[in-house]
Amino acid sequence: MLFNSFEFLLFFPVVLAMYWAFKKNYKIQNYILLIASYFFYGWWDIRFLFLIAVTTAVDFNAALIVQYGKVTLNQRIRSISFLVGSALLFGIVDWKDNQEWGVVQNAIIVATILLSLLIYFLPIITKFSGDRAKAKLALAISIVSNLTILGFFKYYNFFVDSFVEASVNLFGIQPSIFTLSIILPVGISFYTFQSMSYSIDVYRGKLTPSKSLIDYAAYLSFFPQLVAGPIERGKTFLPQFQRTRHVRRADLVEGAWLITFGLFKKIVIADNLAIFVNTVFNPYDTGAVTTMPENGFLVLLAVYAFAFQIYADFSGYADIARGTAKIFGFRLMVNFKLPYIATNPSDFWRRWHISLSSWLKDYLYIPLGGNRGSTFKTYRNLFLTMLLGGLWHGASITFVLWGAYQGIILVLYRLLGAESAGENSKPFMKVVHIIWMFQLTCLGWLIFRAQNLDTILLFLGAIFSSFYIDPEVMEAINTLLFYLLPVFIFQSLQIYYKTLNPHRVMSNVASYHLWFFTVMAILSLSSKKSSEFIYFAF
Amino acid sequence: MNMKKLFKYTLIACYTLVLAEVFLRFLHPIPILPRYVSSTDYGIRGNTPNVSYEHVSPEYRISVDINAKGIRANEDISYENSNLNKRIVTLGDSFMLGYGANYDQTFVSQLVENMPVSNIEIINLGVSGHGTAEELIALKNEGIKYQPDVVLLSWHPTDYSDNVRSNLFKIRNNELVTHAETFLPAVKVREYLFNIKLYEFIATNSQLYGWLREQVSEVAKEAYVVVNAILKPTHSEPKKASKTEQPKVDKSKELAVLLLLEIERVVEEMGAKLVIVDIPRRRDRSLFRSTFPQDERLEGFTVYYPMPDFKKHEGEMLYWEKSDGHFTPLGNEIVGAGIAKVITSNNLL
Fold first, then answer.
1. Distance CA A41, CA A11 (A)
2. Nearest CA in chain A to B29
3. What share of chain B is helix, strand, coil (3-state, %, to 5)?
4. N or C: which end of chain A has fewer CB within 10 A?
5. Rounded distance between C-alpha atoms, residue A336 and residue B148, angstroms
6. Cα separation of B72 and B57, whole Å?
7. To the nearest whole angstrom, how far is the Cα of A525 from the nearest Cα of chain B?
């Protein structure tokens, strides 16, 4: 279900009314949230709910073993019932009359039986190990199961294709490995990362695991952030499911504002910019055009437009998620902090998709050694972290390249001793650093947006060879200015008032005008070509 | 609520309306396209006689003059053809009326320009919103009085649903029968409201009004489609039957075919010739689609399909894109020349 859909307009008040009806009983509210979240996700494709159920059941039990060395019979039976119930509802019943469903049904039946046995016998298997060994084994099961699900659904075909291509190119041998027609489950990268961080945090002693399966299941599937984050941490987010939530009037206003502003960013800014971006990129995406674009200026503008499209799209989603959560009494982390005023790559990653970059730092960069070893090792760790961060976005060579590019510029800035360049500079130099960093970011976005290497090379060739102003360029500049002006104005307000939520500190009159402009823009300037959020694909 | 609060909220509401008007004018100019339609003696909508008005959009500003008989013309035209001109009566909707173009740019004017003879007189009976059913009634009650040599009828994609919605004709025992005597949707309300000077001023000058009307109309149309899809699935444009499916009789298509056959009969009876112009549905600047009913009973009809001529101008703007989707002067020019060619090559005049 999309936030900007008619279905959500019906879904949201119904769930909210039910939720508020039990405001004194957070346990019932958790049940409501769990059902609502599964309904929200299942609206897209009910079959993949089984995967969330598997992740929930495995990580819930694994974390308990890690912490307590055991899982009570009651907890195990609940987990198995949850798993079997999910398999029956989402796996055995063929809701869509799918012709190839039989194979999937068999796989689900086998997986359910094996996982049920594993959950039931896990405490017995680990009974004779020491506490630490038990914890390690349980953590390994959690990580392996998450990575297996992620690897199979997201990367199987990519790695098979890459292996076959390499084998043919290097040895002239065509291996007989077949690819599968696998659908990428929406949000799989987000919830598997969130679930993995939970088990790891319990293992590291930073978090006490949930003893209630329902609390954990509601935590993992919380619909506002299920499909595109932020990737929340158990330490701050799980306790919110374990206590009564209080929603104040200010939370409602704040939530409503975040939802409204998020919608504005998505359907006014992102979707309108997407029309221009797609006119430039699509002919190359589909392979309809394979020659260098005539005017590099137009290409450059399209890349700039994409920079703001992806920002408005993703941060718009994050705002709607935060706003929706707020109305339900939850606090989600801030995922974006004015990323395009970053002065260097490290600064950029402290501002862009913060929940992912901090996840990569805590669960990849630091375990790899962080900056504790030699200089070379620090660079290697940085590069590997960003490379895997790129791969996290999708199974494509362009995402790998994008990750490598991010790693290279981080390393280069460090090599030059400029890792905090511009942060303490005087205003003029700071602006110079910001503009330069934006160009570097946009080069990254070109790699990110292009569907193949040829497009990247052709576009770069055009940018550096033919550059002229024509009516098409003027129209593109007009479009860009028209849609970017409100973004600049709002970000200027954020900088001026030194808060991400300037409407809170503005006068009533100024706040009224901000609301008026945003609502009016949504009503009259929304793109007629609505599209899914970009990060749903990751 | 005390008076002070009431005053305060009224003031805020008024200020918001003014602000919305300013917002739209600067950031999202809305076409102001007032429709001057009123009831005729024969029970359907006609152009309000003796009015002159402007249509203003971000793309154009045009004026429309309607004469005493409700015809878009700069002068009155008598029923008697005393000058022995060749007469073409035109029937259709806003495309035929020439919305989006000044009088001399409309395709009917361009048609005259492109004809090899000079004594041609156009009697444009096009009315915004008309479907084939109303066009038949307009022909029988008004068009016939002008003793035309040619009747030019425009076919528009919405005619399928318009014909059904008007309820003027039905099919009984495979024959066309009159069902309702009148079809005047919201005309009385419109006539009443336009008598109020303030309302007329707002309707002809306010972008906010135009925008709100557009929103309400879109919602109403969507609701109509949804309701009809549930109740009577055949009211929209006919769908192609799949290969495995037995073709079903589509009532809206059948009604359109019978109405067209009836128009042809009336035209023949008055000794004139019928020409039809098919207004294509536009997807983008290079993609157009015909919706004229494909039926063997209509095979002998003289129909001008502009798609091949439009294809020669691929990428050019033939329909207004930020306004109401009518023809641009270039679109009108192509269609006018195309119809003239069809009339000339078939020796219809």
1. 12
2. A524
3. 40, 20, 40
4. N
5. 70
6. 20
7. 7
Residue B203 burial (CB count, 10 A): 18
Euclidean distance between CA atoms A39 and A35, whole angstroms: 6
Residue B329 preceded by cis peptide, ω within 30: no
Amino acid at position A13, single letter: P
pLDDT over 70 at B235, yes or no: no
Q: What are phi and psi of B53, to 5 degrees?
A: -145, 170
Cross-strand bridge partners of residue B276: B153, B303
Q: How many residues does chain B have?
A: 349
Q: How far is CA A270 from CA A19, A302, A413, A529, in A?
A: 32, 13, 31, 11
pLDDT band (50, 70, 90) for residue B245: very low
Four-residue CA torsion sign, A274, A275, A280, A281 = positive
Residue B33 has pLDDT above 80, yes or no: yes
Question: Could you tell me whether strands B281-284 and B273-278 are parallel, antiparallel, or unpaired per DSSP bridges?
Answer: unpaired
Q: Do A524 and B19 touch (CB under 8 A)?
A: no
What the block records as the tokens of A184 is 């990428």
Query: How does pLDDT run across A34-74, given as a tens digit for each residue?
Result: 999 999 998 888 888 889 999 999 999 999 999 988 888 99
B322 in contact with A at a CB cutoff of 8 Å?
no
Say if residue A230 is preceded by a cis peptide, omega within 30 of 0: yes
Number of other residues whose CB lies within 10 A of the CB of residue A51: 22
**Which of A475, A524, A526, A529 should we substitute to test contact with B (largest number of B Cβ atoms within 10 Å)?**
A524
Q: What is the mean pLDDT of residues A130-152?
A: 88
**From CA A479, how far away is CA A235, in angstroms rounded?**
44
Report field, pTM of the whole predicted structure over 0.90: no
Classify the phi-psi angles of A450: left when phi > 0, otherwise alpha if psi is within -120 to 50, otherwise beta.
Answer: beta
Quote the tokens at residue A273.
Answer: 């910019």
Helix (H, G, I), strand (E, B) or coil at A57: helix
Quick one: pLDDT band at residue A353, thresholds 50, 70, 90?
Answer: very high
Residue A404 identity (one-letter amino acid): A
Counting Cβ atoms within 10 Å, is residue B269 exposed (0-12), middle (13-18) or buried (19+)? exposed
- Tell me which residues of A are annotated as active site: 393
Query: Over 70: is that where the pLDDT of B226 sits?
Result: no
Q: Which amino acid would we find at residue A229? A: G
Q: CA A198, CA A64: separation in Å to the nearest integer?
A: 11
Chain B partners of A513 at a C-beta cutoff of 8 Å? 19
Contact residues on chain A for B215, CB-CB shorter than 8 A: 523
CA distances (Å), origin B46, targets A77, A121, B138: 75, 83, 9
Please name the residue of chain A whose CA is at the shortest distance from the CA of residue B19.
A516
Which two three-digit tokens encode residue A148?
A: 């297996």
